[in-house]
Design a protein that fits this description.
Layout: H1 2-11, E1 32-37, H2 46-53, H3 60-73, H4 82-88, H5 95-98, H6 102-109, H7 113-116, E2 117-122, E3 125-127, E4 133-138, E5 141-146, H8 152-160, E6 177-181, E7 198-203, E8 214-216, H9 242-245
Antiparallel strand pairs: 1-5, 1-7, 2-3, 2-6, 4-5, 7-8
Amino acid sequence: MLLMVFRLRKEQPLVTVVETAHLPIYAIRFPALALCPYNHINWLRYHAAEERYLPKNATKEIREAFYHLLLAMDHVAFTYLGPIGEFLKRGPLPQVIRDISLYDLALFMGFRCNELFVWCEFDTTRYDCCKLFVRERTVLGVCLVFNSLVSEDSKMMKVIDPSYPWRARDSGEVSGLSFLLRYNESYVRRGSTGPFRFSLFVKQAEEWSQQMHHNLYPNTHADVMISPILTETSSEARVIEPERRNCLFW
C-alpha cells in the first residue's frame, strides 16, 4: 500500500485546481515592477566620478583605464559580465583602478530616480516617484524597483508602512501603476550606437528577478496588462522533487 501511494506521488501529473474566481482584487498584493535602463552609466557624472575615485594627480594611463572601465559597465548585467572580463584582459591595471568597488561605482554612476521620472501615479493617486521606486540589484543590473521586498531599502519601507507591499483597490487600467519617463540624450555617451531604452519586468515582491521583460523606447506609449493569480500549495507537494513540481518553497 505504501509503495502504491509512493508511485502515485511520483508518477501522477500535478494538477492545478482553481477553488474560486471571486476573490476580491485587494486580497492579492500588487506585483513588483523593475525598471532597468539599458545604459547603466549616466555620462553627465563622468567628471564627478573622476574626482571621486581617482587621485588628483592621476596619470593619463589611470584616466584611460577608468574611462574604459565605465565603457565596460555601461551595458553590463549580473548574468552578462563579458564586457568586464574583456576589460580585465587588457593587461595590467593601475592599482587605484583595481581597488574600486564595482558595486559602489555602479550605484554612483547609475541613473537616479529624480533623473528618470517626471511623475508617477498608483491606484489613482499621484506620488513622489522617489518614494515608490528604490534601487535594487536584479539580473539586469541595478534597477529602480516598485513594491519589492528584496533590498534593504525596500524592506525598510515595510517597517515604515505595514501595508507594504501595496495592493490596488480595484482592477482596471486606472488602478494600476502609471509613470512618465524623462528622455535626455545627454545621458548617453557621445558616439554610442545603442538606443536609449528601458527594460521592464514584473515579479513577485520576494523574487530577485524574472526572465521575461518588456522594452520601453523613447517617444512611445506602452501598456502592460497583469492578470492577478493567487496560488496555494498543498503541504504534500513538498515530498515531490523541485525539478518535477517546478517550484521552490521559501
